[in-house]
Amino acid sequence: MGLQRTPLYSMHQKYHGKMIDFGGWELPVEYRETGIIAEHHQVRKQAGLFDVSHMGEIAVRGEKAESFIQQLVTNDISGLKENQICYTPMCYPDGGCVDDLLIYKYSAENFLIVVNAANTDKDFAWMREHKPAAGVSLDNMSASYALLALQGPLAQDILQNICNVNLQTIKYYWFLPSVKVAGYDCIVSRTGYTGEDGFELFVAPEHAADLWEAIITAGRGAVLPAGLGARDTLRFEAKLPLYGHELDEDISPLEAGLGRFVKLDKDSFIGKEALLRQKERGLQRILVELEMIGRGIPRSHYEIFVNGQNIGWITSGGFAPTLNKNIGLALVKKEYANPGQELDVMIRNKPVKACVGKGIFYRRSR
Amino acid sequence: MKVKADYYYSEEHEWVRVEGDLAYIGITDYAQHHLGNTVFVELPENESEFAAGEVIGVIESVKAVADMHTPVSGTVTAINEELEDSPELLNEDPYGHYIAVLKMTNPEELKALMNSEQYAAFCEQQEE
Q1: Which of residues 210-229 of A touch B (CB under 8 A)?
Q2: Which residue of A has its CA nearest to B35?
Q3: How does pLDDT run across A260-274, given as a tens digit for each residue?
Q4: Mutate which: B29, B35, B62, B83, vs A, most A CBs within 10 A
Q5: Distance of alpha carbon A235 from its chain centroid, rounded?
Q6: What is the pLDDT of residues A123-165, one digit of tens each?
Q7: What is the C-alpha separation between B105 and A50, in angstroms, rounded?
């Protein structure tokens, strides 16, 4: 089976992307002239441009759109304003996660939901299964949008040069549905997945490459293309969860430390009873931060032991370029989740010492 | 992709430089390019013995964990500890930084390796 290509494939060729199979998509892990670490620093210090067109977009429209979404997700969207965005897990009845989503509200009857690429079909089927007989229409819009993410402290200054609105008016987790960027009609949101300030731009596929070039040009050297490798080190270092790692069908958002996005006091939603029970019983597993004491790099799925007992695993781990150290996120039994707890990460069948930390991940200064 | 004359090469993109009965071994430019930024190197222990083809070390990049095999059999007489603190040297100058030095027990094994021209052609083939 052939790999899918995004509308920006020609740009990845032009900028010498090292293309890999990413969940069925042919996307750049890094670019030849830079590489993951340089691209990572570029985004922290100036700005980087990512192709995230593989992400899925699902339109939810109709008079019951809001109440439908409200019972589908764990966060409370009743207070969401027009042009505001909400991050939320979406759960199964047992509290495990179908996916985590961004909900863009145009109006009470019109939403755009952005979902993880690999989950698009699963999410769409899940939504269709729970849709009321009337009052809600669902459309998979994924092929209608290319998605570019401009991320970094200089993102606003650079984008402002080619954009017809004052970007200061778009606050964090808000969007404008019709902005002209370099003359092309875009949805522009102040969102991202890097731990830096930045914007995501939804544009028609046929204009994606021209928009990409316009942004690179507007950057006058301060914007460089960045690949999926840097996207992962940036999101990980900023402790942003990734579905399939920190969250999945067997990990609840409470266990993943995302309790602030689970509103147990709102009216019924899928998974509410299970999540309430989890909370009342007390969590048996908790996602913790780990810092290596011994030499070694913790990586996803490595097991963790204390006194010969397997007490959990690494959900995401690696070298954090900005922090310049080897850190991990781990799901461990609650008895071993306290900061200062020492444990062994099994690296190539050898125990390597690590320590539970708190606040050791990257947070940008504002 | 850079290739050094007078070095021997394995199909797993390791190089060998011979000085008498000592074999300096490292990873090639092709290997470092495909790994990407190297961030961790696990070295063998001094005086440990390896047969050709055995895993002698581990090189980790941001995205990947790669075993390094020794192309020749022998006993480790030196390791390059500089790489523990500066693994990025393998990206910057892969032929200038050996992983380990082995006192060869069977120098005949070198005959099974490629020379620089053969290796350059081999890399080109791999890229197709």
Answers
A1: 229
A2: A35
A3: 999 999 999 999 999
A4: B62
A5: 7
A6: 999 999 999 999 999 999 999 999 999 999 999 999 999 999 9
A7: 51
Q: Does domain A56-140 have CATH number 3.30.70.1400?
A: yes
On whether any CB of chain B is under 8 Å from the CB of A297, the answer is yes
Site of tokens 């963790």: A304
**Nearest-by-Cβ selection for A318 from B62, B84, B91:** B62
Nearest CB to B63 within list A29, A296, A321: A29
What is the residue extent of each domain of chain B?
8-107
Name the pTM for this structure: 0.96
CA distance linking residue A62 with residue A137, whole number of Å: 6
Interface contact A326-B84, CB threshold 8 A: no
Q: Domain coordinates of chain A in residue numbers?
A: 9-53+145-237, 56-140, 284-356
User: Do the Cβ atoms of B40 and A319 come within 8 Å?
Assistant: yes
Chain A nearest C-alpha distance from B19 (Å): 32
| Domain with residues B8-107, CATH architecture | Beta Barrel (2.40)
Which two three-digit tokens encode residue A287? 């996602």
Classify residue A213 by its DSSP letter.
H
Q: Report the complex ipTM.
A: 0.91
Instruction: Tell me the fold of A9-53+145-237.
Output: Gyrase A; domain 2 (3.30.1360)
- Measured in Å, how far apart are chain A's first and last C-alpha atoms? 46
